[in-house]
Design goal:
Elements: H1 14-27, E1 42-43, E2 49-50, E3 53-54, E4 57-58, H2 62-70, E5 75-79, H3 83-88, E6 95-96, H4 102-106, E7 114-118
Parallel strand pairs: 5-6, 5-7
Antiparallel strand pairs: 1-2, 3-4
Helix pairs in contact: 1-2
């Protein structure tokens, strides 16, 4: 309804997104230490996320991942940590593809969405 407040109790679907954002934020150097919220993710004319590159790797923040989720932009979380770490804690909906198996699995990843990987 217009004007209705969305709370965590009224929107339980936000829990997996918040959990993923918190996990990803904890993996970043410096954690939450005094960082300003980033701008929303820019999209090109085809709806593909435009992300900055650093050393040939595109980077995305937990806040930007939450933005993608809120906007309904499809993405796949790929956990490149070992299977043991993935089994202990992981964002909802993530898939485990350990770094050692990345080359073999690349051809099986969907090409219709952004792939967001995370590691420690």
């Amino acid at each position: 309804m217009p004007g209705s407040a969305v709370t965590l109790r009224s929107a339980p679907a936000l829990f997996p997104v918040l959990r993923a954002a918190i996990l990803l934020l904890s993996l970043l150097p410096g954690g939450c230490a005094g960082r300003a919220a980033p701008q929303p993710v820019e999209l090109d004319e085809n709806g593909v996320a435009i992300l900055p590159e650093e050393d040939g790797t595109k980077r995305i923040t937990p806040q930007q991942v939450a933005f993608l989720s809120e906007k309904g932009i499809p993405f796949l979380f790929v956990d490149s940590r070992g299977r043991e770490a993935h089994a202990q804690e992981r964002p909802a909906g993530s898939v485990s593809i350990p770094l050692s198996m990345t080359e073999m699995a690349t051809s099986r990843l969907p090409d219709d969405r952004l792939i967001v990987t995370f590691c420690t």
